[in-house]
Design brief:
71 residues
Length: 71
């Protein structure tokens, strides 16, 4: 998954640098890249899937600030 996502992200970042695409994040950026013809629907879906997996992995370390403190 990661090599494919890195290639797609590289293509999108290049378009942002070249001014062909406005800078954005997540679903909005994927939609804009699809509308601009930079990503196919399948490629945009792959980026969305990766983002869901990445967010879930980061969420594993999301603990409340008071964890471990005496009640």
């Amino acid at each position: 998954l990661l090599p494919a996502v890195e290639a797609l992200e590289s293509r999108v970042r290049e378009a942002i640098r070249d001014g062909r695409l406005a800078n954005g994040h997540g679903a909005a950026r994927e939609a804009a890249a699809s509308e601009a013809g930079l990503l196919s629907g399948e490629e945009a879906a792959l980026l969305a899937r990766y983002e869901r997996i990445r967010t879930a992995a980061i969420g594993v370390d999301d603990f409340p600030r008071d964890i471990g403190r005496a009640a």
